[in-house]
Design a protein that fits this description.
about 450 residues
Length: about 450
Amino acid sequence: MTIRAWLFALALAGFAAAPAQAADAPPPIPAAVAGHWQGELVQQGQALAVSFDLVADPGAPSGRFSADRWQVMDYPIGGMKLDGASFDFGLNGLELDGTLARDTISGTFKGNDGTGTFTLHRTARTPAPYDVTEVTFKDGDVTLSGTIVMPRTPGRHPAVVMTHGSGPETRWGTSRYVADRFARAGVAALIYDKRGSGQSSGDWKTASYEDLARDALAAVDALAHRPGVDPKRIGVLGHSEGGIVAPIVETLAPGKVAFLVAEDTPAQVIKQQDVYRVGNDISSQDWSTADKALALDTYKLFVDAAAGDRPMADYEAARAKYKDAAWFQYMGLPDKDSWVWAWYRPRAHLDIATLWTRVKRPVLLIYGEQDQLMPVDQTIHRLEDILDANGAPYAAFIVPRAEHNLSVHPAAGDPFFWWRQAPGLNDTVAAWILRCTAPDGPCRTD
């Protein structure tokens, strides 16, 4: 029988957020392909190891996708439709056409970066060397759903709560993979669906940064009461927007967490950082010089209107004037009825660096060398100056060639290779946590 599957296109944030769900429930996985499938995609002689876990139970998630090189684990892939001899996965971006023969699926694929072959074999999944427990916890009237990944080694372990980047994010994908690596190293982790995402209630679009920080503090409390966790060695790790939330956790509850890890987090006024990142994106487009200038001016106008610094009428006039331009349609700026306006107004003038002025606990700062969303050197220097003034112990390093989501991609004109998340990064962070929370380490709160 023929297999057709679509793998998801990668968003800037990696695999942190679950894919959008259709209004109707996805169809269940056919029994003929249920099970654990492991294999590889091969393009230009380069192999990418992948695996799928497909469940035929209509009441369970229809499928999960994992790839070590991409540092993604148990990412939901939606349903699988059987139509005669054809299967459709609930994914997009990479199309696989193949044949199922007993316990092997093989064939060809095509995607944005070219074509190749693939082979998958049905096999037993190797059991994880740690315990996984589904939990819920509350922050006021918001119920958050999460997963605790706990080492099986004896004694009480250091632990980390993983906060989220911007937009809707769940615990699956990148977060699940990082938790796996931490648990294997001896660090417990709690990953959870952001409010309004996955199985968590609430709405991130109406939440303040303090609301998100209180969610993280509720997660700290949930971890602190788990057997096997040392409540005095719990820290918070945040990427991008999660790195904005992390210092607020320390501000709301000084000394409650043992350490902070911030990855690719900005340290500018939010308006300025937005113009910087969008300006870089505009500069990289194949547009005329005049269109690039118009695009940047229009984006600045949008930011000013969203911040309350310019009349909305000015922005609406620009929308009406340029709405049919290709560059304007690419930017996807919101109309006046969007939720973005209420969300952005209280954030626009926030100087993110000031959030760090009360942080006393040890900090690990990590940045991708090729991060185009912020000026990396300037950002690190600003945070180092603040942490020095606070007397807070810290370490900072830059990941060579990595982008904002800490992934490494071929540069234009380079030979093909499968993009990858920064190798060894999670093990390095886990090692820092273990050293910092050792009996004589600076992360101890006792």
